[in-house]
Automatic annotation (TrEMBL):
Keywords: Membrane, Transmembrane, Transmembrane helix. InterPro entries: CbtA_put. The lineage of its organism: Bacteria, Bacillati, Actinomycetota, Actinomycetes, Pseudonocardiales. It comes from Saccharothrix saharensis. This is Putative cobalt transporter CbtA. The chain crosses the membrane at residues 17-40, 74-97, 109-129, 149-169, 181-201, 221-241.
Length: 253
């Protein structure tokens, strides 16, 4: 069996799934970028105003100048969201093809949305609980690499929990659905609690001049942008895969 045949799902080849994943990723990335412009941009500008109002550090170490204008950064942010969406879409299509044993009865659309919701929980909600997003002006420059390692490490651990939960559900296939779902949910919750306890706290504190309302507005807006990327990916991918799967199944009869 070739690699492509091994990833075939209900008559659709891996290349077909990958093309739809890339397309869905581009659309969801663009939607996420637009949410970034329409929802996240306002708290970012408010946070920048707070940062610029701070007195310069002794020795001239505090610079308010920008290499690129704010407008250029916004456009670049939308383009970056599309690029990220394409990459995530390709990975999502691969995960969708490889996870066919986990969703043997659900329709392709439901399966795609369920998979995107699981990925959103593992790769967005979990790190947001432990390391919530902070607006500009929060966090020391010399801790960026450490914070990035912590954040990406928690995302990887969260995805492993999601994969492990799916594998556990597959192994418990002979159990009744309510008992199996309860066992898998308890195992996943226990694993998440362990991760939240084991991973160290963020090294930075929020400066006293950053309003609490602004902080929460930014964090909720950032989470909305991420939700648009993941859940939009599942919906668009499902809309692309569902009819193609039905046509492939009909032609095979």
């Amino acid at each position: 069996m070739s690699t492509d045949e091994g990833l075939t799902y209900k008559g659709l080849t891996y290349k077909g799934l990958l093309a739809r994943g890339v397309g869905a990723g581009a659309v969801s990335g663009l939607l996420a970028g637009l949410v970034g412009v329409l929802v996240v941009e306002a708290p970012i500008r408010a946070a920048l105003a707070v940062e610029q109002a701070r007195p310069a550090e002794p020795g001239g170490g505090h610079e308010h100048g920008e290499l690129f204008s704010r407008g250029t950064q916004v456009v670049g942010g939308v383009l970056a969201a599309v690029v990220v969406g394409v990459a995530v879409g390709a990975l999502f299509a691969t995960a969708y093809a490889r996870s066919r044993r986990w969703f043997t009865t659900e329709a392709p659309f439901v399966r795609a949305v369920a998979l995107s919701a699981a990925a959103f929980g593992a790769a967005a909600v979990l790190p947001a609980v432990k390391y919530p997003a902070n607006p500009p002006g929060v966090g020391a420059a010399d801790t960026v690499e450490y914070r990035t390692v912590l954040y990406l490490g928690l995302i990887a651990a969260g995805l492993l929990v999601a994969v492990g939960a799916s594998a556990l559900a597959s192994r418990l296939g002979r159990w009744s659905p309510p008992v199996r779902a309860t066992a898998v949910a308890l195992a996943a919750v226990a694993a998440v609690v362990v991760l939240l306890v084991v991973f160290p706290a963020t090294p930075d504190t929020v400066p006293s001049d950053v309003p609490g309302g602004l902080l929460w507005e930014f964090r909720l807006a950032s989470l909305a942008e991420t939700a648009t990327l993941w859940l939009g990916l599942g919906v668009v991918f499902g809309l692309l895969v569902d009819p193609a799967t039905r046509r492939a199944e009909a032609s095979a009869v």
